[in-house]
Amino acid sequence: MVRNLKKLLAEAEKKKIAIGHFNIGELEMLKAISHVAQRLDVPVIIGTSEGERDYLGIHHTVDLIKSYNQEHGHRLFLNADHTHSMEKAKAAVDVGYDAVLFDGGKLPLEENIRKTKEIVEYAKAKNKKNLVEGEIGDIGSGSTIRKEIPKGAAIKPEDLTKPEDAKRFVKETGVDLLAPAVGNIHGMFADAPEPALDIERIRAIRKAAGVPLVLHGGSGNTDEDFLAAIDAGVSIIHISTELRVAWRRGIEAGLKKNPEEITPYKVVPEAIEEIEKVVENRLRLFNRL
Ligand SMILES: [Zn+2]
Fold it and tell me: So where are the chain's domains?
């Protein structure tokens, strides 16, 4: 069992596959992801955003993932997703997250570099195995159902992350992973197709940056786009909104099927089942199974 995320990423890149990153907001999501990871025997990254961390508690989350790994003998890594505050990024490192994303994507490049570098130095001093991800470019925020592209989010070629900025950012900060803006947008669109990914831009950024790329806002993108993005240099793909949609659908179905039921664990299996379907589909695609 490889417990080193960096090595795993190098392996993934060679095999032209990507590691799935799924956010959890509660126990049903973790159960569903863990079931599928075990069934398919693939490593998975569990993400918690700042809001999800506030709700779940960081100590509790770390303990939960540790005990899942011990109990099931599989490979769940834990990532502190989209961390905007320096204090929260450091706190995640302190309690034992495997990776942290310091999100300075909306900051001016200079300030983003300065702050991200501070987190990299902090994390590496604590534990050399900690991975730090940086973000450049605006990919919108929030795993929600959208009616329109969020204000400021980059989808025009001139607004996407530039390879030369990516190169400078990685060189000056020392990040292990980079999240660029390449046509990806957080959330999903209600009635319109997701904007296409700029595959050539991904390839150029990967070459210039020299570190594996992380694709955020994967929900709603096409299978073809995902596979092309992996070929071009994406090693981690984030899926969150699709899980939230499945959770909601499952809870509604569970309540409808058992209208008098008040025992939570008799209602939520429908939600777990719905989430598992999404996770399995995505993991089969990302791991080319
Ligand atoms: Zn994201």
Answer: 5-286
C-alpha to C-alpha distances, 282 to 19, 148, 160, 225, 255, nearest whole angstrom = 10, 24, 25, 13, 27
- Cα-to-centroid distance, 207 and ligand 1 (Å): 22
Which residues of the chain are modeled with pLDDT < 70?
A: 1-2
Write down the catalytic residue from 81, 98, 138, 225. 81
Residue 137 Cα to ligand 1 middle (Å): 12
The contacts of residue 174 (CB under 8 Å, 6+ apart) are: 117, 120, 121, 124, 132
pLDDT for the residue numbered 1: 54
CATH classification code of 5-286: 3.20.20.70
Three-state DSSP class for 218?
A: coil
Which tokens hold the place of 152?
A: 């400021």
Q: Is 198 a catalytic residue?
A: no
